[in-house]
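Appendix B, Record 12. Input sequence as logged:
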Amino acid sequence: MIMNLLVILLIAITAWILSAYGFFSSLLHFACVVTAGAIAFATWEPIVMLFLGSKMPDYAWGLSLVIVFTLSLFILRLIVGKACPSQVYFSTTVNFVGGAILGAASGILTIGILLLGIQFLQMPSEMLGYRGWKVDEHGEVNRPSGTSGHLWIPADDWTANFYTWASRGSMYAPNSLARWHPELAQAASLYSESINGGESRQGMAPDQVKISKVYEINGDGLPRNFLDEQAKGIDRNLQAPGDRFKLVIVDVLIDNAAADKGDKLRLTKAQVYLVCRTRSAEEQYIPIHPSAFIQKYKSDSADEGRFLFDGGDLAASSVGGASSGIPMKFEFVIPQDWQPSHIVVREMRAALPRVAPTPWTERDLASFATTEKAPAAGGRGSTKPWMGYLLGLLCVVLVMVVTVQEPKRSHQD
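Logged structural output:
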């Protein structure tokens, strides 16, 4: 409820103030907002990788997006103000109504980018009554029931969809937002879905995740109906009759520095996903979260166990430190004609090896101890919830100050 009211209030303030500036100023401001958003989404990842990611990994994605957007909007408005110093005459009705409509559109994109950025900060899973996506009690990624999973004005969804759509069209680039960050609003919401409602770390520094091997298992080498059962946890749009699935297992090595205090690494289902390229007429990229994980379950043994992500608050948890890193395997069920592109762990992307996948058989799968209980996800968290809220508040103030600044234009035709 609080987040709904806050989003509506900020959009209404933006629309009201811009309507007072007139239709022409609102039109120019809207163009600046669209352009600033495009600049932000084009540069936020390089900034994270080159600067912020290694210094403050838990906050880098959110700060990069909001700061670049705010600076871009401020500079663009200065340039536009110098280039268009005079107002264009319209009637009072056109100025008010047209200004309000464009102001609302600017407000939705502005608050959408702001909301996406804040969700990419280290935060508790639920923020002011809003929790867009979560892993439910059945281990499936869904929107929460009730009002917490839905905004009355879903500015984050609309903004993410707008720029994703634009990255396939007028803002197209080979390294597009649609390719590298599919389902952006969902990814932002799931960023905070760490163990115990946001207790453990949510970010990761660059190069802290590496791919060891990729295994691929077709349905012919598995028990009858195995993949059909596993596929129940993925997108319901993929459940069409006659679909054939395959199992992709990605063997990752994660740096010890990514762990919480006490050298405990904990990764929930929400924090890991495999991006796959579909074979549809219009090439699409779809994120798929793991259905199971494979790891050591005893510190004094090299044996591995296979454990299902079949509950809401389960995590792959390290047992015993290793100087060379923490090995884990994540198991994904995808349609057989899809091609895995890359894996994302805590928003850090790792490319899959460009080699033929290592084949597995039913015997390999059966070798894991599926009856063992997964390691407990306890341990000391290293999060500071107040820091996320403080940075989020500063982001709101910074963006709104730039948004509502009055354009210096004379009222001449």
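The two ends are 45 Å apart (CA to CA).
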